[in-house]
């Protein structure tokens, strides 16, 4: 549905371990990396870019904005949450069913070191 998303960081060396670990768990390869940021994904597929802002102003997370990464198992949601917390992220909602969205909605929410809100979600009834 989307081409790419871009998230700003104020401290790439601090943010890097978080992003490398989280995207590895989610199965998104490094597309390219430079000394101030990174891109995950593939040339013709969806991508996530993390780096300094284009206008040079401080990076700030959007209020009410979050990115949800689709995964194929509850175990991947669980691993996403655990590795995010182990690499400088903060908890915004532990892994679990959220039946108010639909009966099979299983997700977890975190914030990255720059306070961007991220989620891993599985819509399958398979655990």
- C-alpha Rg, in Å? 14 Å
Total number of helices: 2
Give the low-pLDDT segments. none
Could you give the order of strands across the largest sheet? 1-4-3-2
- The structural class is alpha/beta
Residue share in β-strands: 35-45%
Based on the structure, what is the oligomeric state of the protein chains? single chain
Number of DSSP E strands? 8
Order of helices and strands: EHEEEEHEEE
Question: The CATH topology is what?
Answer: 2,3-Dihydroxybiphenyl 1,2-Dioxygenase, domain 1
Report mean pLDDT, rounded to a whole number.
95
The rough form would be described as globular
Rounded to the nearest angstrom, the distance between the terminal CA atoms is: 25 Å
CATH homologous superfamily annotation: 2,3-Dihydroxybiphenyl 1,2-Dioxygenase, domain 1
Q: Which sheet architecture does the biggest sheet show?
A: 4 strands, mixed
Give your account of this protein's structure.
With 127 residues, the chain is of the alpha/beta class. It has two helices and eight strands, in the order βαββββαβββ. It has helices at residues 12-26, 74-86, and strands spanning 4-8, 30-34, 37-41, 47-51, 66-70, 90-97, 106-111, 117-122. A four-stranded mixed β-sheet has the order 1-4-3-2, covered by helices on one side. The chain has a four-stranded mixed β-sheet with strand order 5-8-7-6, covered by helices on one side. The relative contact order is 0.23.
